[in-house]
Fold:
Amino acid sequence: MIETVSQIIIFATGVPAIMMLSIGGKWRRRGCGIALFGQIFWLYSTYNHEQWGIFFLAIWYIFSYSIGLAKKDWSQNANLFAKCNKMLKSIMSKVC
Structure:
């Protein structure tokens, strides 16, 4: 029963969060808040099913959504996103 409720909440928070994050503007912070709430249920579900990769990814999402919720001005993130993208490309070129 609790697993079914958990899966429903994961869906019910994931869909609007993705839409709000995609729309942008004032909706981004709200999307981060909804997604952050849903991560509690991701943690519960992945822990119970011993899906450790997704469990630790959910922890990373909690960190990321918390930053998004704390940010008031998303325009300042442009340089941060560019630096992260450059760093990821550098790492991927070394790995692959």
In short: The mean pLDDT is 86. The two ends are 43 Å apart (CA to CA). Residues 2-95 form one domain. The chain has one domain: 2-95.
